[in-house]
Design goal:
single chain; 317 residues; alpha/beta; Rossmann fold; N-(1-d-carboxylethyl)-l-norvaline Dehydrogenase, domain 2; NADP binding; 6PGD_dom2; transmembrane helix; membrane
Length: 317
């Protein structure tokens, strides 16, 4: 089968892969798809939308010069491709890997694939949920090779149909490093939020048990986690977002003693009060203990008036 220079083969049709496939089709690309489970509803959905489904992975890869992987983990890439290596099907292909993993995963994949004939390897991370793929808010971090090759290989144009391509460097692992760094902030927010919701749930239950007058009972009964989040929690988090820029600037400018009005000793006491309060109310605060230890170290090393940005230096190994 002669490989197409204008089409693309997409391997993996989970939620993100399916969203990518629709974006490719919307941009007018000729698309060949492959998925380990051919009966997945997204396969039929995409064929109806104009994609060509190829049940044989080797044939799917042979159909186009650019191959995009979006599978659960890097190990799935090796499992799928190892049986095909001897056939030479990977020779001169351009591989774009949008599978979530670590920087080392990306570097090892680049070496492994190039040793088996792949001409160019790019590794990337899509910085939106599947619902926002292909929209103006979508950004795709990409690394590997160089920017000239990103352009001449056609990968920049291809990625543009998913989101704004943001090239981060020639080391194949850099985009993955950015990806997991940003996602760590997301998961940190989630565990903090869920700890907060557990504590609020305790207070709502306590208020209901101790309410006496009928008016009070009705007011308490109307309170739930959703309206507490809407009224108090989301506005608080929104107001704190700009503080991340202050922390970044303090680190960039070697100005970590700048506490921005929040001295470290005050924060140390606050975080320990939160942990103690959680323990008293029956809420697990284990996720906060490491942060509390870091605040104590900062106070010890840099003084009670130092800034939160000093924590950054303690996280570097």
């Amino acid at each position: 089968m002669a490989a197409s220079n204008s089409g693309v083969t997409l391997v993996g049709l989970g939620n993100m892969g399916t969203a990518i496939a629709h974006a490719f089709l919307k941009s007018g690309r000729s698309l060949t798809i492959w998925n380990r489970t051919s009966t997945r509803p997204s396969v039929t959905e995409l064929v109806v939308a104009g994609a060509s489904y190829e049940p044989d992975l080797a044939e799917a890869i042979s159909a186009n010069n650019i191959i995009v992987f979006c599978v659960l983990e890097y190990q799935n890439i090796y499992q799928g491709l190892q049986p095909l290596v001897a056939s030479g099907v990977l020779k001169d292909k351009v591989m774009v890997n949008l599978t979530n993993g670590t920087p080392q995963d990306a570097r090892e994949a680049s070496v492994w694939l190039k040793e088996r004939g792949v001409a160019n390897y790019f590794d990337g991370g899509i910085m939106v949920t599947p619902q926002n793929v292909g929209t103006p808010v979508s950004i795709v971090l990409i690394s590997g090779e160089d920017e000239d090759m990103l352009e001449s290989s056609g990968v920049r144009g291809l990625i543009s149909s998913i989101g704004l391509p943001d090239y981060k460097g020639e080391d194949a692992g850099i985009a993955a490093g950015y990806d997991i760094a940003l996602l760590s902030g997301m998961f940190g927010m989630f565990i903090g939020s869920l700890t907060a919701l557990a504590m609020i749930r305790k207070q709502i239950d306590r208020a209901r048990k101790t309410s006496g007058a009928d008016g009070t009972k009705k007011a308490v009964a109307d309170v739930n986690l959703t309206n507490v989040v809407t009224t108090y929690f989301n506005p608080l988090l929104t107001s704190l977002i700009p503080h991340n820029e202050l922390l970044a600037a303090a680190i960039d400018n070697n100005d970590q003693d700048n506490n921005h009005g929040n001295p470290m000793e005050m924060m140390r006491i606050a975080i320990n009060n939160i942990i103690r309060g959680c323990e008293e109310e029956g809420v697990d605060a284990e996720n906060l203990r490491h942060f509390a230890k870091l605040t104590e170290q900062v106070v010890h090393l840099h003084g009670p008036d130092s800034g939160l940005a000093w924590v950054h230096s303690l996280l570097l190994k």
